Amino acid sequence: MNCLDKLHLKNHDLTYYIKFKDKYELEKQAVLLKDFISDKFKFTADIKLYKDKHKDDINREHAFTTVLFAITGVVLLYALLNIINIIFNKVNEDRKSYGIKLALGASQKDIFMQNFFELIILSLLSSIIVTLATLIVIYIINNYIFSFFSISINIYIICVFICIIFSLLISFLMLRKITKLSIMEIYR
């Protein structure tokens, strides 16, 4: 946990602020704190009070993280449904142009590849825009409202990767279905 704690030692008229650089569990924090006190002041510290004080904070942080993950999951599902809807509408709008291209002699493979790459570019462009918008919002929140939001690059990459994979899969399935149709079936 990236925290700033005030450490006041009774026998010494000193106050220390300790900031953990990495996220640690409560037990690890307690050990680090105990080692710090032992090294700095050459006496053994009882850190039970530290554990008791921060147990509620850590439980609250876990609950907050769970809520954020649930919200992220709902937003990701909503984004996936929107991607599916956009791809479905795009393919259905272009049905007649597929028929015209087939009638003029284009192969089904050419039509498929042209539209598939168009949808790939659309997916990648939307992912880049969403990434930039998210980073800007997190920067604003961290600097002006709160300072505890952070973005795990691994989770963010996984979410973007899931959206891109689903958009490619849906694009592939929709275009494959359309290109299998004959010219007469496309115009119906």
TrEMBL record:
It comes from the Bacteria. Keywords: Cell membrane, Membrane, Transmembrane, Transmembrane helix. The chain crosses the membrane at residues 63-88, 119-141, 153-175. GO terms for molecular function: transmembrane transporter activity. The keyword Transmembrane helix applies. It is found in: Cell membrane. It holds the Pfam family FtsX. Residues 70-182 form the ABC3 transporter permease C-terminal domain. The keyword Transmembrane applies. It is a multi-pass membrane protein. One of its GO terms (cellular component) is plasma membrane. Belongs to the ABC-4 integral membrane protein family. This is ABC3 transporter permease C-terminal domain-containing protein. It comes from Clostridium thermosuccinogenes. The lineage of its organism: Bacteria, Bacillati, Bacillota, Clostridia, Eubacteriales.
